[in-house]
């Protein structure tokens, strides 16, 4: 793989997106404002529904106005969403989480497929993976910085200080998005996919749809349920910050893991890493001893990030094979739309599972990962199709 060293506006965008100062207390922000765990899952389902409905229209718009302008719109929507999050917490108005979720959904719609398409076309297929990993490490660096700052900000300014800091980083992300170089090849003449074409695309890309949905739900468990796992192990929630620092540092190894395994078939490697992640999810569901649980929590994000990068490269190559390169954003958004629908079903199922115990969510998602991994391993789409 090629080496990417230069810092650019896209790296700055990723850095600022990683500066989420309230991340260690993300669930507490919602629950202290009046949300229950079940309502939280329902709210995430609403966010996914909003994303689902806006995927294709925003993808078509992206192919017409360009990736840079779309990323600017995405960061503008996120800035407004973070403002509503702050207002919901300060005013203790849980209903404000609804428009906040809708705005986040709009941001995800604009971002869905756009960042991948921007990197794939700006840097080419050969440099896509190293640039993706390079930019992701800048995002991780931002996340590490915000996590290190969490304790100090929380001590002196409380949760409102964390939310205000994140609001400022969102504003900086918007500035970096404005600095991205425009993609001149986009035009108003890009073809608009028709419904039969979208259905065929979802059918042929069903493996990407399923994997994308499961990765989204797995990421949700990491972001919001690690703290509950610590409590189940008898450990104070204050250890969440060191844990986040640990798994973020481990996650930065993805760049070197991708380079070391680049010679192997990507489809099969996706299957192997999904199986490893599924085993890790199973451990978190049934083991309540802190040492083995913490070890697994440190490596699980890496086990998901690496196959996620491979899947992104395979998905773009899949779009090229179908001759949809000129409407890349719309095609990727169509696949994301299918993933959103599957994710909505999984989130509502997770909301029901929390009634029996949140720990059951980990093995349930692990089984989903195992199924997707077997699908990719036995039929390595990106390597043989």
Layout of secondary structure:
Layout: H1 9-18, H2 26-31, H3 37-65, H4 67-91, H5 97-111, H6 114-178, H7 195-204, H8 206-232, H9 240-251, H10 254-260, H11 266-286, H12 290-321, H13 328-356, H14 361-378, H15 381-384
Helix pairs in contact: 1-6, 3-4, 3-5, 3-13, 4-5, 4-6, 6-9, 6-10, 6-12, 8-12, 8-13, 8-14, 9-12, 10-12, 11-12, 11-14
Short key terms for the protein model shown above:
385 residues; mainly alpha
Question: How would you describe the overall organization of this protein?
Answer:
The protein has 385 residues and is mainly alpha-helical. Helix content is 81%, strand content 0%. The chain contains 15 helices and no strands. The chain has helices at 9-18, 26-31, 37-65, 67-91, 97-111, 114-178, 195-204, 206-232, 240-251, 254-260, 266-286, 290-321, 328-356, 361-378, 381-384. Helix 3 packs parallel to helix 5 (97-111). 51% of the residues are buried. The mean pLDDT is 83.
Overall 3D form: globular
Characterize the biggest β-sheet.
Answer: none
How big is the Rg?
A: 20 Å
Oligomerization: single chain
| Strand portion | under 5%
Determine the N-to-C terminus distance. Answer: 22 Å
Specify the structural class: mainly alpha
Q: Helix and strand succession?
A: HHHHHHHHHHHHHHH
Give helix % range.
over 70%
Please count the beta strands (DSSP E, at least 2 residues each).
Answer: 0
**Count of alpha and pi helical runs:** 15
Which stretches are low in confidence, meaning pLDDT under 50 for 5 or more residues running? none
Averaged pLDDT: 83
